[in-house]
Amino acid sequence: YTGILSLGHGVFFGLGAYAVGMHLMLTIGTESVYGSTLPDFMVWNQVKELPYFWKPFYSFWFAIAAAILLPTLFAAIFGFLAFRSRIKGVYFAIITQALALSAWLVFNRNETNLGGTNGLTDFKQVLGFRLSDPGTQRALYVLTVLSLGAAYLLCRWITRSRTGKVLVAIRDSEQRVLFSGYSPGSYKLFVFVVSAALAGLAGALYVPQVGIITPAQIGVLPSLEMVIWVAVGGRGTLIGAVLGAVGVNWARSILTTSFPDLWPFFLGGLFVAVVLLFPEGCVGLARRLNRGWHAGLGFRKKLATSEPEGQEVR
Protein backbone atom coordinates (compact mmCIF):
# COMPACT_ATOMS: atom_id res chain seq x y z
CA TYR A 1 0.00 0.00 0.00
CA THR A 2 2.82 2.42 0.75
CA GLY A 3 5.30 1.28 -1.89
CA ILE A 4 7.93 0.13 0.62
CA LEU A 5 9.90 -2.94 -0.45
CA SER A 6 11.36 -4.61 2.63
CA LEU A 7 13.68 -7.58 2.22
CA GLY A 8 14.32 -7.94 5.93
CA HIS A 9 11.02 -8.82 7.58
CA GLY A 10 12.39 -12.24 8.42
CA VAL A 11 14.32 -10.45 11.19
CA PHE A 12 11.13 -9.27 12.90
CA PHE A 13 9.57 -12.70 12.45
CA GLY A 14 12.66 -14.27 14.00
CA LEU A 15 12.72 -11.92 16.99
CA GLY A 16 9.17 -12.89 17.87
CA ALA A 17 9.92 -16.56 17.33
CA TYR A 18 13.07 -16.53 19.45
CA ALA A 19 11.30 -14.69 22.28
CA VAL A 20 8.69 -17.45 22.61
CA GLY A 21 11.27 -20.14 21.85
CA MET A 22 13.39 -19.01 24.79
CA HIS A 23 10.43 -19.39 27.13
CA LEU A 24 9.64 -22.85 25.75
CA MET A 25 13.26 -23.91 26.21
CA LEU A 26 13.15 -22.90 29.87
CA THR A 27 9.98 -24.93 30.46
CA ILE A 28 11.73 -28.15 29.36
CA GLY A 29 13.53 -28.33 32.69
CA THR A 30 14.93 -31.73 33.60
CA GLU A 31 13.18 -33.35 30.61
CA SER A 32 16.16 -32.24 28.54
CA VAL A 33 18.68 -34.70 27.14
CA TYR A 34 21.26 -33.89 29.81
CA GLY A 35 18.73 -33.66 32.64
CA SER A 36 19.82 -30.11 33.44
CA THR A 37 17.66 -27.06 34.03
CA LEU A 38 19.84 -25.29 31.47
CA PRO A 39 19.01 -25.70 27.76
CA ASP A 40 20.90 -28.58 26.16
CA PHE A 41 23.02 -26.36 23.91
CA MET A 42 24.25 -24.42 26.94
CA VAL A 43 25.30 -27.65 28.65
CA TRP A 44 27.06 -28.70 25.44
CA ASN A 45 28.85 -25.33 25.30
CA GLN A 46 29.79 -25.68 28.99
CA VAL A 47 27.76 -22.67 30.12
CA LYS A 48 27.57 -22.88 33.92
CA GLU A 49 24.82 -20.36 34.63
CA LEU A 50 21.77 -19.14 32.76
CA PRO A 51 22.62 -15.81 31.04
CA TYR A 52 20.93 -12.79 32.62
CA PHE A 53 18.91 -11.90 29.51
CA TRP A 54 17.31 -15.36 29.55
CA LYS A 55 15.89 -15.10 33.07
CA PRO A 56 12.86 -12.85 32.33
CA PHE A 57 11.70 -15.41 29.77
CA TYR A 58 10.64 -17.79 32.52
CA SER A 59 7.43 -15.76 32.39
CA PHE A 60 5.10 -16.72 29.54
CA TRP A 61 3.50 -13.29 29.42
CA PHE A 62 6.86 -11.56 29.33
CA ALA A 63 7.81 -13.75 26.36
CA ILE A 64 4.58 -12.88 24.52
CA ALA A 65 5.06 -9.17 25.19
CA ALA A 66 8.69 -9.37 24.07
CA ALA A 67 7.67 -11.22 20.90
CA ILE A 68 5.70 -8.17 19.81
CA LEU A 69 7.55 -5.31 21.49
CA LEU A 70 11.08 -6.32 20.46
CA PRO A 71 10.31 -6.30 16.70
CA THR A 72 8.29 -3.11 17.18
CA LEU A 73 11.11 -1.30 18.96
CA PHE A 74 13.76 -2.55 16.56
CA ALA A 75 11.68 -1.53 13.54
CA ALA A 76 11.01 1.88 15.09
CA ILE A 77 14.72 2.59 15.54
CA PHE A 78 15.74 1.20 12.17
CA GLY A 79 12.84 2.84 10.35
CA PHE A 80 13.39 6.21 12.01
CA LEU A 81 17.01 6.31 10.87
CA ALA A 82 16.15 5.12 7.36
CA PHE A 83 13.11 7.29 6.68
CA ARG A 84 14.65 10.36 8.29
CA SER A 85 17.45 10.02 5.74
CA ARG A 86 14.78 9.65 3.02
CA ILE A 87 16.09 6.27 1.93
CA LYS A 88 13.57 4.67 -0.38
CA GLY A 89 13.12 2.42 -3.37
CA VAL A 90 15.86 -0.04 -4.19
CA TYR A 91 18.19 1.52 -1.61
CA PHE A 92 15.78 0.73 1.21
CA ALA A 93 15.42 -2.82 -0.11
CA ILE A 94 19.20 -3.23 -0.08
CA ILE A 95 19.70 -2.02 3.50
CA THR A 96 16.87 -4.24 4.78
CA GLN A 97 18.48 -7.17 3.00
CA ALA A 98 21.77 -6.27 4.69
CA LEU A 99 19.88 -6.14 7.99
CA ALA A 100 18.62 -9.70 7.45
CA LEU A 101 22.11 -10.93 6.62
CA SER A 102 23.58 -9.22 9.69
CA ALA A 103 20.94 -10.72 11.97
CA TRP A 104 21.58 -14.15 10.50
CA LEU A 105 25.29 -13.83 11.25
CA VAL A 106 24.66 -12.69 14.83
CA PHE A 107 22.20 -15.47 15.65
CA ASN A 108 24.51 -18.07 14.12
CA ARG A 109 27.25 -17.38 16.66
CA ASN A 110 27.41 -19.63 19.71
CA GLU A 111 28.63 -16.70 21.79
CA THR A 112 25.15 -15.16 21.71
CA ASN A 113 23.82 -18.14 23.73
CA LEU A 114 20.84 -18.55 21.40
CA GLY A 115 21.58 -22.02 20.10
CA GLY A 116 23.88 -21.11 17.22
CA THR A 117 23.15 -22.73 13.87
CA ASN A 118 20.92 -25.37 15.49
CA GLY A 119 18.68 -22.75 17.06
CA LEU A 120 16.07 -23.62 19.68
CA THR A 121 14.13 -26.88 19.47
CA ASP A 122 12.78 -29.93 21.32
CA PHE A 123 10.00 -27.98 23.05
CA LYS A 124 7.77 -29.97 25.39
CA GLN A 125 4.93 -27.82 26.69
CA VAL A 126 3.30 -24.40 26.82
CA LEU A 127 1.37 -23.24 29.89
CA GLY A 128 1.41 -26.82 31.14
CA PHE A 129 -0.14 -28.28 27.97
CA ARG A 130 1.92 -30.84 26.06
CA LEU A 131 2.71 -29.63 22.56
CA SER A 132 2.48 -33.19 21.26
CA ASP A 133 -1.14 -33.47 22.39
CA PRO A 134 -3.66 -33.17 19.49
CA GLY A 135 -5.89 -30.95 21.62
CA THR A 136 -3.05 -28.47 22.15
CA GLN A 137 -2.26 -28.49 18.45
CA ARG A 138 -5.89 -27.77 17.55
CA ALA A 139 -6.01 -24.94 20.09
CA LEU A 140 -2.87 -23.38 18.62
CA TYR A 141 -4.35 -23.69 15.13
CA VAL A 142 -7.56 -21.96 16.21
CA LEU A 143 -5.52 -19.25 17.94
CA THR A 144 -3.55 -18.73 14.73
CA VAL A 145 -6.73 -18.39 12.65
CA LEU A 146 -8.21 -15.92 15.12
CA SER A 147 -4.98 -13.91 15.17
CA LEU A 148 -4.96 -13.84 11.37
CA GLY A 149 -8.54 -12.58 11.36
CA ALA A 150 -7.75 -9.88 13.91
CA ALA A 151 -4.65 -8.79 11.97
CA TYR A 152 -6.69 -8.66 8.75
CA LEU A 153 -9.38 -6.49 10.36
CA LEU A 154 -6.73 -4.18 11.82
CA CYS A 155 -5.03 -3.75 8.46
CA ARG A 156 -8.38 -3.29 6.72
CA TRP A 157 -9.32 -0.57 9.20
CA ILE A 158 -5.99 1.19 8.62
CA THR A 159 -6.16 1.02 4.83
CA ARG A 160 -9.75 2.32 4.74
CA SER A 161 -9.05 5.18 7.12
CA ARG A 162 -7.64 8.58 6.27
CA THR A 163 -4.21 7.24 7.12
CA GLY A 164 -4.65 4.52 4.52
CA LYS A 165 -5.47 7.08 1.85
CA VAL A 166 -2.28 8.96 2.71
CA LEU A 167 -0.30 5.72 2.49
CA VAL A 168 -1.61 5.06 -1.02
CA ALA A 169 -0.85 8.67 -1.97
CA ILE A 170 2.74 8.21 -0.76
CA ARG A 171 3.05 5.13 -2.95
CA ASP A 172 1.75 7.01 -5.99
CA SER A 173 3.63 10.29 -5.48
CA GLU A 174 5.60 10.96 -2.32
CA GLN A 175 6.60 14.44 -3.45
CA ARG A 176 2.99 15.56 -3.84
CA VAL A 177 2.20 14.29 -0.35
CA LEU A 178 5.15 16.25 1.00
CA PHE A 179 4.03 19.42 -0.77
CA SER A 180 0.52 18.91 0.64
CA GLY A 181 1.84 19.39 4.16
CA TYR A 182 2.09 15.77 5.27
CA SER A 183 5.21 14.04 6.55
CA PRO A 184 5.72 10.93 4.41
CA GLY A 185 8.47 9.69 6.70
CA SER A 186 6.14 9.55 9.71
CA TYR A 187 3.49 7.58 7.83
CA LYS A 188 6.07 5.20 6.39
CA LEU A 189 7.53 4.66 9.86
CA PHE A 190 4.06 3.94 11.23
CA VAL A 191 3.21 1.28 8.66
CA PHE A 192 6.70 -0.24 8.90
CA VAL A 193 6.38 -0.60 12.68
CA VAL A 194 2.89 -2.11 12.45
CA SER A 195 4.09 -4.66 9.91
CA ALA A 196 7.04 -5.55 12.16
CA ALA A 197 4.72 -6.11 15.13
CA LEU A 198 2.54 -8.43 13.04
CA ALA A 199 5.63 -10.31 11.87
CA GLY A 200 6.69 -10.76 15.49
CA LEU A 201 3.24 -12.11 16.35
CA ALA A 202 3.51 -14.54 13.44
CA GLY A 203 6.86 -15.76 14.77
CA ALA A 204 5.40 -16.25 18.24
CA LEU A 205 2.63 -18.44 16.80
CA TYR A 206 5.02 -20.31 14.51
CA VAL A 207 7.41 -21.70 17.11
CA PRO A 208 5.14 -23.86 19.31
CA GLN A 209 3.50 -25.40 16.24
CA VAL A 210 6.59 -26.13 14.16
CA GLY A 211 8.79 -26.94 17.14
CA ILE A 212 11.99 -25.23 16.03
CA ILE A 213 13.45 -21.82 15.24
CA THR A 214 16.91 -21.41 13.71
CA PRO A 215 18.84 -18.54 12.12
CA ALA A 216 17.75 -19.96 8.77
CA GLN A 217 14.28 -18.45 9.41
CA ILE A 218 15.85 -15.02 9.94
CA GLY A 219 18.11 -14.75 6.91
CA VAL A 220 17.66 -13.29 3.46
CA LEU A 221 15.82 -16.21 1.85
CA PRO A 222 12.79 -16.23 4.20
CA SER A 223 12.45 -12.47 3.76
CA LEU A 224 12.50 -12.89 -0.01
CA GLU A 225 9.88 -15.62 0.25
CA MET A 226 7.58 -13.23 2.10
CA VAL A 227 7.85 -10.79 -0.80
CA ILE A 228 7.02 -13.61 -3.23
CA TRP A 229 3.93 -14.52 -1.18
CA VAL A 230 2.62 -10.99 -1.59
CA ALA A 231 3.56 -10.81 -5.27
CA VAL A 232 1.81 -14.10 -6.04
CA GLY A 233 -1.30 -13.23 -4.06
CA GLY A 234 -1.58 -9.67 -5.26
CA ARG A 235 0.17 -6.48 -4.26
CA GLY A 236 -1.99 -3.74 -2.83
CA THR A 237 -4.57 -6.21 -1.50
CA LEU A 238 -4.86 -7.67 1.97
CA ILE A 239 -6.58 -10.88 0.95
CA GLY A 240 -3.93 -11.36 -1.73
CA ALA A 241 -1.17 -11.52 0.87
CA VAL A 242 -3.10 -14.18 2.79
CA LEU A 243 -3.88 -16.26 -0.30
CA GLY A 244 -0.31 -15.95 -1.56
CA ALA A 245 1.18 -17.13 1.73
CA VAL A 246 -1.21 -20.08 1.99
CA GLY A 247 -0.89 -21.06 -1.67
CA VAL A 248 2.90 -20.88 -1.92
CA ASN A 249 3.44 -22.77 1.34
CA TRP A 250 0.90 -25.40 0.27
CA ALA A 251 2.86 -25.88 -2.95
CA ARG A 252 6.07 -26.01 -0.93
CA SER A 253 4.72 -28.80 1.28
CA ILE A 254 3.82 -30.87 -1.76
CA LEU A 255 6.93 -30.27 -3.86
CA THR A 256 9.49 -30.60 -1.08
CA THR A 257 8.03 -34.00 -0.20
CA SER A 258 8.44 -35.46 -3.69
CA PHE A 259 11.02 -33.18 -5.34
CA PRO A 260 12.95 -31.29 -2.63
CA ASP A 261 15.71 -30.16 -4.99
CA LEU A 262 13.27 -28.52 -7.39
CA TRP A 263 11.61 -26.18 -4.91
CA PRO A 264 14.07 -23.23 -5.27
CA PHE A 265 13.75 -23.40 -9.07
CA PHE A 266 9.96 -23.55 -8.85
CA LEU A 267 9.88 -20.58 -6.48
CA GLY A 268 12.15 -18.52 -8.72
CA GLY A 269 10.19 -19.45 -11.83
CA LEU A 270 6.92 -18.61 -10.10
CA PHE A 271 8.19 -15.17 -9.16
CA VAL A 272 9.39 -14.46 -12.71
CA ALA A 273 6.07 -15.66 -14.13
CA VAL A 274 4.12 -13.42 -11.77
CA VAL A 275 6.19 -10.36 -12.62
CA LEU A 276 6.00 -10.91 -16.38
CA LEU A 277 2.56 -12.44 -16.94
CA PHE A 278 0.28 -11.15 -14.18
CA PRO A 279 2.05 -8.46 -12.13
CA GLU A 280 -1.11 -7.80 -10.10
CA GLY A 281 -0.99 -11.34 -8.71
CA CYS A 282 -3.73 -13.91 -8.46
CA VAL A 283 -6.25 -11.46 -7.02
CA GLY A 284 -5.53 -8.96 -9.79
CA LEU A 285 -5.84 -11.69 -12.41
CA ALA A 286 -9.17 -12.83 -10.95
CA ARG A 287 -10.47 -9.26 -10.98
CA ARG A 288 -9.38 -8.79 -14.57
CA LEU A 289 -11.12 -11.99 -15.66
CA ASN A 290 -14.23 -10.98 -13.73
CA ARG A 291 -14.31 -7.57 -15.42
CA GLY A 292 -13.86 -9.22 -18.81
CA TRP A 293 -16.66 -11.67 -18.10
CA HIS A 294 -19.09 -8.94 -17.05
CA ALA A 295 -18.06 -6.77 -19.98
CA GLY A 296 -18.78 -9.68 -22.32
CA LEU A 297 -22.19 -10.25 -20.74
CA GLY A 298 -23.02 -6.57 -21.04
CA PHE A 299 -22.01 -6.52 -24.69
CA ARG A 300 -24.15 -9.57 -25.49
CA LYS A 301 -27.16 -8.08 -23.73
CA LYS A 302 -26.70 -4.81 -25.57
CA LEU A 303 -26.38 -6.63 -28.88
CA ALA A 304 -29.53 -8.64 -28.20
CA THR A 305 -31.62 -5.59 -27.29
CA SER A 306 -30.42 -3.67 -30.35
CA GLU A 307 -31.86 -6.27 -32.79
CA PRO A 308 -35.29 -5.51 -34.30
CA GLU A 309 -38.17 -7.58 -32.97
CA GLY A 310 -38.80 -10.76 -34.83
CA GLN A 311 -35.34 -10.76 -36.46
CA GLU A 312 -33.21 -13.75 -35.70
CA VAL A 313 -29.96 -12.98 -33.96
CA ARG A 314 -27.06 -14.70 -35.66
Largest sheet: 2 strands, antiparallel
Query: What is the count of β-strands?
Result: 4
What would you call the shape? globular
Give the percentage of residues in beta strands.
under 5%
Separate helix tally? 12
* Averaged pLDDT: 88
What structural category characterises the helix and strand content?
mainly alpha
Strand line-up of the largest beta sheet: 1-4
Poorly predicted residue ranges: none
Helix-strand topology string: HHHHEEEHHHHEHHHH
Number of domains: 2
N→C terminal distance: 47 Å
Oligomer: single chain
The helical percent reads 55-70%
Radius of gyration over C-alpha positions, nearest whole angstrom: 24 Å
Protein described:
With 314 residues, the protein is mostly helical. The chain has two domains: 9-218, no CATH class; 220-307, no CATH class. Helices cover 68% and strands 3% of the residues. The chain contains twelve helices and four strands; from the N terminus they run ααααβββααααβαααα. It has helices spanning 9-26, 40-44, 60-84, 90-108, 134-160, 162-172, 174-179, 184-210, 220-233, 238-258, 263-277, 281-306; strands at residues 120-121, 125-126, 129-130, 212-213. The mean pLDDT is 88.
